[in-house]
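Practice set, problem 2.
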Amino acid sequence: MSARAGKQSILLDPVPFVASAAAVAGPLEGQGPLKGDFDLVYGDLRAGQKSFEAAERKMLQEACSLALEKGSFSLEQIDYFISGDLLNQITVSGYSAAALGRPYFGLYGACSTLALALSWGGILVAGGFAGSALAATASHHCSAERQFRYPTEYGFQRPEQAQWTVTGAAAAVISAAGGSPGITAITTGKVVDLGEKDSFSLGAAMAPAAASTLLMHFADLERNPDYYDLIVTGDLGRVGSQLLLALLSRSGYYPEQRYSDCGLMIYNPHFHEIGAGGSGCACSGVVVLGHLLRRMRQGELHKVLVVSTGALHSTTTLAQGESIPAVAHAVALEM
């Protein structure tokens, strides 16, 4: 049966499986190097809806529908819907939960929500509290910019350390039987706040949280980076990834040869506006449940550690001059 491991980790037994998954993406993401791994690419940012927020809702609901369809699951087989997003009061997930009509856990982990949702789903299934759970997340570049920074119409000049919020959504059916890979272990992160106040430099704010969770994961499970074929962070981007590797090296870990970041994988590097890379809930969502899941099922990867990262600030705290706390949650996926 499942058991605590060390201070912050859990080994799941029986192992719950990612039985089915889907990833949908916006037009810019659909031009990037991972375009072939998305189930659906939208031709415009509004996805035929009246607003960016409505488009994000449509993307999340279609990702959920596709995940169910690909695994031949009916809605009645889903015991819980687990989701979160970036909009105030996670409204995209709330509206989607209303449309799905299943018991709902709304989660907020900012851009760490994918790993948070997979963790909750894995615990529910492994603990016998659910036969199947639908875990999902979404983000939209334009809705996130409007809420946290400036409306895109303003034409604000973005600094080099800024990242580009991924437009898209991802969903996974976590089940007690069938499918692969399995969710074998989770490490729940602590909130870390080292005083970063630049809302454009979220990679720098989140890197210490990622380091904290990774170091605890290695200690709790008595593993080192070589245990995994790939360790992937959610959206640290260029700045945060470099900082993370520097922080890990201080503790004697050098995972460069098996490390990557979803924010560095999703976009064409020649698109200069992305700045330091991708960000947002959908960043790790579409990369992990689209690209990396395909590679695992094709035998290219066998053990992947997903460390989704999130900045837990708000527009109010930023206006009040507060710093940016961050968190990272780790989920081990194994074939």
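Problem 2, part (b): a different protein.
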Amino acid sequence: MNVRRSSLLWLAAVGLVIFFWTPAAAQAQSGLRIVFMPAPEYRLNEKAVFRLRAESDQPIVSVSFFLRTPDIVETFVGEATFPAGNTRIEAVYELLPDRRQIRLFAPVEYWWVVRDAANREIESARQRFIYTDNRFSWQSLSEGPLTVHWYEGEREFGQRLLDIARAGLRRANRDLLLPAEKLPPAINIYVYSDLEAARPALSASGRLWADGHANPMFGAVVVAGSLDGLNGLPRLDNEIPHELAHLLIYQIAGANYRNVPQWLNEGLAMMAESAPEALAASRLANAQQAGELLPLQSLCVPFPADPAQAQLAYFQSESVVRYIQSNYGSSSLRRLLEAAADGLDCNAVVQRALGFPLAELERRWREQTFSAKETTPLPSGIWASYLLLTALVTFGATAFLMLTLFWRPRARMI
């Protein structure tokens, strides 16, 4: 009897739930809702097409499209096209590059707002994707915050790239000493098989001869390499850590990343490379002897576009940063970056971190690096005359000295 009564009570409770729930469920089914949001379709640097399916028990009157990327503050807003007066619609928005350019490898966030004739409004969940170079079928491999992407080569090649990235990240952080929680949460490294294929990705650097580029705001690194043992992996062993260093510097400088003196930014990145450039010492020595060293003040801003001048700028920057680290410690490098993060200019950054001005830093670096105070080089046209005069003076002085030492006057005969 008790069992039967319990069963009846349970059935009554279920009946009450169904009675009260059914109208609410019916109302939810008949109200405004978003049915489907497929992934966007695009071709690199062409239009991107976004779609949405929605339905309501009233005609849908407007569908607005919103898009945001980290590099642009303003949220883009556009009105989608769809068949008017319908309760079930597929809305389409075509984003053209001349209306809003999406930079390669940018993290993209987008969403929709739909409104019906009953003035009800619904906002979709935020959708996210990375605007990748979809000309290629990328393979990926991840570990911690690092993900490497490549499209040519087997998994062994991808593992080698990941090993390079892991060691490079550790080396780049050797002097910056960022704690784990301050490292970038996600780092994507894209490896192209040749420089020509990488052109669209590298064009953002403004130097088309460059083999790598980092976009710290996107947490993205782009490098051009290959499976060729001579020109491929050894170069990537330098390029990948170099670009990773820029991402770590951004973690310290933040919104004032552009305030970081270029010689400091690139010098730190050069120090993260696995092997120093063999030509650096001779190139610097030749430039010093010819009086062609670049003023350190000129290296506060982006380097020259000319490849030869840019190479000298890189070598000189690395030498200056190594001088600072050797003489004032790794903590001084961190102080320089923190001063830049506070918005100080190049001269003020050095003054605060080292206690003397930029010109004094350059003088001390030159004096120690080249072991003697520099002399002003003579114009090339008078070098021959100068050398001839030097030889004549030397010969005359030597002859006079010999006569003084060995000549004795002959005694007179009486």
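Answer key, part (b): The chain has three domains: 33-130, 132-258, 260-393. The longest strand covers residues 107-116.
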